[in-house]
Design brief:
Number of strands: 0
Structural class: mainly alpha
Oligomer: single chain
Helix content: over 70%
Strand content: under 5%
Order of helices and strands: HHHHHHHH
Largest sheet: none
Number of helices: 8
Shape: globular
Length: about 160
């Protein structure tokens, strides 16, 4: 999100005053964008609870989490450096709660091992994303590594 608030307002088709009224600083705008992306990710988790295969629903969401981690790496790093720590904690709690619902559902269906926690799965996804960012086919490699890891998560 390069440029000042005026440029962002122009691209969004709103007046500068409107943008400043809602987001007094560039940091406030970036925080709102990031939180909106996290809310979208969490909504997706809720929608996946209706899928007929809870194990596949969890895997689908973990891939979405991985894509979120890769796609928001720079924004997240900027917010962690310059933003309020409460935002990171709030977003982490939202993601953990959404993922835990999917995991619990998959475990109840006996499609995921009962000894796995959502924290472990999120750490795994979080470790794969930066491990592949230097690869020419980073997103593909990240997806492949996550698929390998997920196959080890399924109940036998």
């Amino acid at each position: 999100m390069e440029g000042g608030l005026e440029e962002i307002a122009r691209r969004a088709g709103v007046g500068s005053a409107t943008l400043h009224r809602h987001f007094p600083t560039r940091q406030a705008l970036l925080e709102a964008v990031f939180k909106d992306r996290v809310e979208t990710l969490c909504t997706r988790a809720g929608n996946l609870l209706d899928e007929p295969d809870p194990g596949q629903a969890l895997a689908t969401w973990l891939h979405a989490v991985g894509a979120h981690a890769v796609g928001n790496r720079v924004l997240g790093a900027s917010l962690m450096r310059d933003g309020a720590p409460a935002l990171g904690e709030t977003c982490h709690n939202m993601i953990t709660k959404a993922g835990d619902a999917l995991l619990t559902h998959a475990q109840a269906a006996d499609t995921v091992r009962p000894d796995i926690t959502i924290t472990q799965l999120l750490k795994l996804v979080g470790a794969i994303a930066p491990a592949t960012e230097q690869d020419a086919d980073g997103p593909t490699e990240a997806g492949l590594l996550l698929a390998i890891a997920i196959n080890g998560v399924h109940a036998r």
